[in-house]
Structure formats: structure tokens, C-alpha cells
Predict the 3D structure of the following.
Amino acid sequence: MLEGCVPWPAELAERYVREGCWGDETLATATLRWCEQHGERVALIDDERRLTYRQLDEAADALAAGLLDLGLRAGDRAIFQLPNSADFLIALLAVVRIGVLPVLALTAHRERELTHFAEAADAKAYFVGAETPKLDTVELAERVVAAVPTLEHVVVFPQAARRRFRDARDVAVAGPRDAVRERVLAAAPTDAGEVALFLLSGGTTALPKLIPRTHRDYVCAIERSAEICALGEGDVNLIALPAGHNFQIAYPGMLGTLLTGGKVVVTSLVRPAEAFPLIERERVTHTALVPTVAARWASAPERGDFDLSSMRLWQVGGTRLLPDVARRAMAAFPAVTIQQVFGMAEGLVCFTALDDGEDVLIETQGRPMFAADECRIVDAEDRDVAAGERGELITRGPCTLRGYYRAPEHNARAFTADGFYRTGDVVRLHPSGNFVVEGRIKDMINRGGEKISAEEVENLILIHPAVAATAVVAMPHPELTETACAFVTLNPEAELTFEELIQHLRTQQIATFKLPERLELVEQLPLTNVGKVDKATLRARIAATRAGETAAGAGHGA
């Protein structure tokens, strides 16, 4: 594997091949095969384009050849920060076909995170979306390039002509189809055990770590998840959550839909009044949602105004789906199967089965994809807990990484001596054999599926001259499950408002979803017996405060 990555032990690699989890096909050859098989079928739709498999194939090849002309080669890393559009999938196919390794950032990331990703990966290229009324993406790219010497190329999809970076439309090569394909095939990676792309960790202790995913483990995940979700040629998969998430790429996501010859519909529209007309027009059958969106769709008055009868499957993940929300969704859309999905970019993904009973679909978060996924539920001493008891989930398997990229010290803490990944998720085993997710042991806030490192935000708050100490904790939210609350003690005679805190954090160039949504000024932070900040007490305090406000009909916070 790429230097800086941790390979699977030989005996486990042999097992995964023997049991049929791993094959020899790279993501490059797999995507080429899928496009050739399905030819003139419609493959991809966004707000502006409808592309057949053949047109998608040609667009990916043209961009891949253009990237070769820029000097990009197999093993080079490229930061990917593209919005939901056809360009995302075209660019993803282009880079994997020539062995360039995308680092899948989100459009919400800002200079601090992007600079970190680029430095950690020694990135040579940066792909960014067009400017929007809310964000000058090109100006953001200019700041990142100025901070990271390895970045040689910025490609914008697309941009105004007045800016200095390359427009993706100009990079793509226009030439004879056979000649372009020959160049791409000559550059295609051939080792299925090599890294195909980098995903991002949830950033539980600091800035996110890079997760190397190989061709063989990613192809097998795509194939298995498409099978579990019963995707077929006639299906239409709506990609409405951020395309840069692992969930939307491969579980089964865009790539699983291409595998089966289905149709991918890409949009950033999730409000019922916008999404429902699209579902009706394109006869969407499958989609992936976070619980907050599922709840909105289930209670939307607009649902009676559109023909939504094509929908068969909602995958719901990112954070735990509460049973009451699941029941409401089932009642509002009786023809739709709700499939809970619990997993992580690090590899393990669990699904409820389409034929599970209603109680299992509502109460559990699924079972692992592969029989080869080894899962244990352990206590603080790594001892297995009794059946039905709560503990931390640790796991290893054919899709689960053996170590983060270039992070040996962190890996020593994140993995057991025998290679089990410490997920940080507290789970228990349901009588069905599925997991029930009870919470997290790591200091992380799950805001509607987006993971916030409390430590990262705390370190940035402490820079403010008025702040003496701070603790950021999860605060209950009726739709997002959790948001961030910052408890702060001030220096003598100092003052700080919520608005001033947010303005300070914005100057630190962090993603908007990481901003605290409440400020609590306190004289001192509670401590545990060993002198650490007692975050359990703070979480309980803000939960009680929120419950009291809700009971009194009062709102508070940002």
C-alpha cells in the first residue's frame, strides 16, 4: 500500500479473498465496465444535465486525459470540494481512472480544515465548485493555495472567466474518442490492493484524520450494499445529502447505482416543496436521508400534492433514527421501507434487512454487511460484556481500515493490539442480532450526521482574549439530535456575547456546522475527582435547561 498506510495482515487478506469479499478489480476498471455495460441508458441527472452512461463515460475520460496533461499522475492527491452536481461524479470517475487519489472534503469545510487536509495529504491539486452568493469559493481556494506549497493546480467546476484558476471545461480534452480512451487506459491503476481514495474521520479528538480506502475494499462494499438495498436497472437513486459523504458515494450511493444500471439524480434540494416535485418527475425509488430530513418529509403537508408512489426505500443514517420518527415516516409513506444504516467512513457499515420485522426496523440500527466483519462489544478494560449489555463497539473486517494515514501515534490509541478499530460507539446487541446504538464515548457532537470535535472548537474559543476556560458539549435538539453548547468562564472584568463568540470563531475559518449554537457563561467549570472538566455534568445541566425551556414554551440560543 501507499507509504503511510497500514496494510491488512497477510492471513486476514487471504481470508477475505477466500471468502469472496475481495476481488482483483480496481475501481477504475469497475467504473469503465459499468458504463460500457449500460451504454445508452440514462445514468446521471442534475439541475442542468441528463447524461447517458456513454456520455458520462466520455466526460470522465475527457477530464481524466486533461488532468494527465496538467501533469497529475497515479498516487498524486487531490482535494475534492465539489457540490452536489453531475460534475462531482464526472470528476470522481476521472481521478480514480488514472489513479489520482481524491481527498473527499465537504462544501462546508473552510480554510482551517482544507489547509489541514492538503498538508496531511501533500495534495497536488484542489477541485472546487463555482462561486455562490454565500461563498466565494475561488477566493477560499486562493487562501488555501497560498498556505500549502504542494498545491500546484486548482480546477474550478466551472468558474467566471475573470479568475485565475483553470475551468474544468477547459481542462477536459476534446479529441478522438478512441485516442482519449487509450491514454486513460494506459494510466489506469492495476493493483486492487492500492489506495483508491481518502475519506475523512469524524474528527473526534482534533481535526479529521485521512482514511485510506483501497480499490478492492471499496468495490466490495459497493457491490454488497447494492445487493442489500435491492438496487436494479429500473431504479432511480436520489442523492440529496452532501455528495462528499461516504454514504452518498458507495453505500450504495452513486457508485452502487451505476453498478446496477440505475439512474442517479443529484440535487442539493431537500426541502419537501423542492424535493417532492423532483421525486415525482424522475420517479425516484431510493434515497438516503438523515433523521431530520426524514422527519420533515414525514410531516410535510406538501406530500399530498405530488405523486410519490415510486419510492420504495429510504435509507436513514448519520445519527440514530428515533423510534417515534420511524413510526411517523412509516405511517406517512406506507409503501416505503425504512432501512436504518449505521456505520463509519473507517469501514464498518450495518444495515437493517428489507425483510426485517417492523419492530426490528424501528428499534435497531442494523447488522454488519459481511460475515467476515468481526465485532465485539467491550467494557473499559476491553472485556466482552454480557449479551444485551452496553459497551463500546470494536471491529475489524474486509472494509475496516487498519490505521489512519500517517498517524502512528493516533493509531496506537485507536486500535487494539490485534487490530480491532475502537469505534467510540456505545451499542448493545438486540435479540435479533442487530445493534442498537446508545451513544458515544468519545468527546464528539453529532449534529444531524455532521461530527464536531469538541476539542477543536474549544481550542479555538480559548484564543479569544476574554476567555479563561471553556468546555463544549452536546446539547439536545429536536431535529438535529445534538448541537454544540459552549460553557465559558471569563477572565476578570472581561465580557463576551454569543454574537462576539461566533464572530471570533468565523475568523478562525472553520466550517459553519461546527459553530456553537448556545453560550453559557459560568463562574467555574465542574471538575471530576481527577481534576478533569466534568462534561457529563455539563451535558446533564444543559439538557435539563433545554427541557425546562421547552416545557415553559420558551426558546433560546442561536
Observations:
- The radius of gyration is 23 Å.
- The chain has a mean pLDDT of 93.
- The longest helix spans residues 53-70.
- The chain has 19 helices and 25 strands.
